[in-house]
Design goal:
With 286 residues, the chain is mostly beta strands. The protein has 2 domains: 60 residues, SH3 type barrels, CATH 2.30.30; 188 residues, Beta Barrel (Porin). Strands 6, 7, 8, 9, 10, 13, 14 and 15 form an 8-stranded antiparallel β-sheet that branches. A 5-stranded antiparallel β-sheet has the order 4-3-2-1-5, with no helix packed on it.
């Protein structure tokens, strides 16, 4: 009885071993190993057992005729595992309810005075580099269209700046991967400080005089349109990590000057109506 139980247990273990084998798929080829170190896979069409000649067709359909002196040896019906690329599952994207985003922006702004003359040397310039925190809240419509409100606050040329307005995203990647592609468009009001590229001045003392440049600041209120491109890396929980690059075109609503020297307070009044900005932002959406 014990022998019978032992034999039954052996059969069960053997069957489990057979069924536990991996499900790897294989393809079968004849293989010929040439003396010039090439290895060809394909099919042996004919073999001359007396002289050793082989007619061989490789996997690309090319036919060869080898003499015995040209190959080392050959093997028939060798098994090669088929490499199957694992398909990564698509994460579900949030498309219902409100969507929130929180992130960081870095932006560069360039302002050029608009004057009638074409003499660029006489034009006044302003520049600024900003770093801010921004947030967005909105809703998707059929996942392709997103509409919401957005606001940002940060620091630029040692002064605080802020903006707020509306945002629209158009997503066009068709949700075939875990990377969304979209075009962000914003219409916003912004208050910011830009620094002048340098105004000349002369300082006179009882014993000497000196010349140089100083750098007053200009406070701008603008209305701007922003258009860019973004990539959203979808996370398992349905949110995303986003990277965006955008161009901004500002239209000046008002301007005020600070830190002017007395001789420039009255006559300094450039019209900075050409202000452009470039923004790089990263954010998390949830």
């Amino acid at each position: 009885m014990n022998k019978f139980l032992f034999f039954t247990l052996f059969l069960l273990l053997a069957s489990n071993t057979v069924f536990a084998q991996d499900s790897t798929q294989y393809e079968v080829f004849d293989v010929i190993y040439l003396k010039d170190n090439r290895i060809l896979k394909g099919q042996i069409l004919s073999y001359d057992s007396q002289l050793g000649g082989i007619s061989f067709k490789d996997v690309y359909g090319r036919v060869y005729n080898f003499s015995r002196e040209e190959y080392k040896y050959f093997r028939e019906k060798e098994h090669f595992p088929i490499k199957v690329k694992k398909q990564k599952g698509l994460y579900e994207r949030k498309s219902k309810g409100l969507r929130y985003s929180l992130g960081l922006n870095t932006a560069y702004y360039y302002g050029l005075e608009k004057i009638e003359t074409d003499d660029l040397n006489s034009r006044k310039e302003t520049t600024g580099l900003g770093l801010g925190v921004y947030g967005t809240v909105g809703k998707y419509f059929t996942r392709t269209h997103f509409l919401g409100a957005t606001a940002e606050v940060g620091v630029m040329t040692s002064q605080q700046y802020y903006n707020f307005g509306a945002r629209y995203n158009f997503e066009y990647d068709l949700r075939k991967t875990n990377v969304s592609k979209y075009v962000p468009i914003e219409l916003k009001y912004q208050n910011m400080f830009l620094q002048n590229s340098g105004l000349p001045y002369t300082e006179v003392t009882p014993n000497s005089s000196s010349e140089g440049f100083y750098y007053p600041k200009t406070e701008f209120s603008t209305l701007f349109v922003s258009v860019g491109h973004g990539f959203g890396f979808i996370l398992k929980q349905g949110g995303s990590f986003n990277i965006e690059l955008a161009y901004q075109r500002h239209f000046t609503l008002s301007q005020k000057f600070y830190d002017l020297k007395p001789q420039d307070v009255v006559g300094y009044d450039p019209k900075f109506v050409q202000i452009n900005g470039f923004r790089l932002g990263v954010s998390f959406s949830f």
